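Example 370.
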Amino acid sequence: MDYNFSFYMPVNIFGGNSPLQNNKNVFSELGKKCLIVTGVSSAKKSGALDDLIKIFNELNIEYSVFDKITENPLTATCYEGGKNAREINADFIVGIGGGSPLDASKAVCVFATNPHIVNDDIYTAEVKNPPLPLALIGTTAGTGSEVSGVSVLTRENGRKQSVSGKNYYAKYVFADAKYTYSVPYYTTVSTALDAMAHAVESMFSPRADFLTQKFALIATEMIYPILEKLSCSEDLPTEEYRNTLYFASLYAGFALNKGGTGFPHGMGYALTEDYNVPHGLACAVFLPAYLKEAENKKPALYNELLKSMNTTSEKLEKIIQNFCDFDFTIPQDKINEYEIRWENLKNFKNSPTEFNNKDAARLMTDLFVR
Ligand SMILES: [Fe+2]
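Predicted structure in complex with fe (ii) ion:
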């Protein structure tokens, strides 16, 4: 066993009961003016926005709400948010939501202090000035964005692409699972599968190490029994299960922060862009193929994974396939286009065996051409 590891995750996480209220003084350190970045509904529905505004009123912090973040946020929308932050002289940003608003708020911080960066320039331009400080409040149990230095955005051409590095970490995270309690069944399933995909894909990545594999195994142990329950009934999870799912998504995020995602995420983006499949389900449909590669290439680790979930390969595959029972097909021409676009896709390098664009096109054809 190779016990070597290194880990960098410069985020201060506050958890427990009411972490926002109990640690509100950090906001005074961040400044007097805040731009809150969020989507249209989840920040309000979850109760997080109201709780934050109450605290800002107590602390005399001025705020403005930028609630234009949609699913799969565009670089242009994040640029607009950054411009907005400059116009109101915001000292800091708070991002509230699921993966899309959290990822977008990271980009807003960069755009706010770097007016020379416009829209898609964010992928290539030098970040000359430090981004605005960022605090995050998650409202779904899946993304792990709270603890990663990654922001997945959508380019002007409609294609999803990630940007990452030291400029994309939050300074503070308020991890309060109660903000996930109002998430509906379908989103709960999709986000839980996203967290499971983060754990599994990062675990078998060549970048993973002893420590991050352990984080991933903790996550799969926590998520799998709840996924099993969700596969048998559309009843919403209890608060206890919601808490478990949320903290598991953070463990998966720790693993993801080091290992990165593999081909299920790289291929899943296409299903989200062109067929509106929610992110977690879009990645999970490719997970059984990834697991097969993992079983062949790294059998000992694969067995540890099954042990963590107390399940068998067959059961695991069946549960994932039941959730990912899509009724659309994809024309072969479109898959041929994907094959060209996927040449040198960086997620493919994070796979247990050598995996390339031809393998990806074959897998897509197996699953979606009938
Ligand atoms: Fe994901």
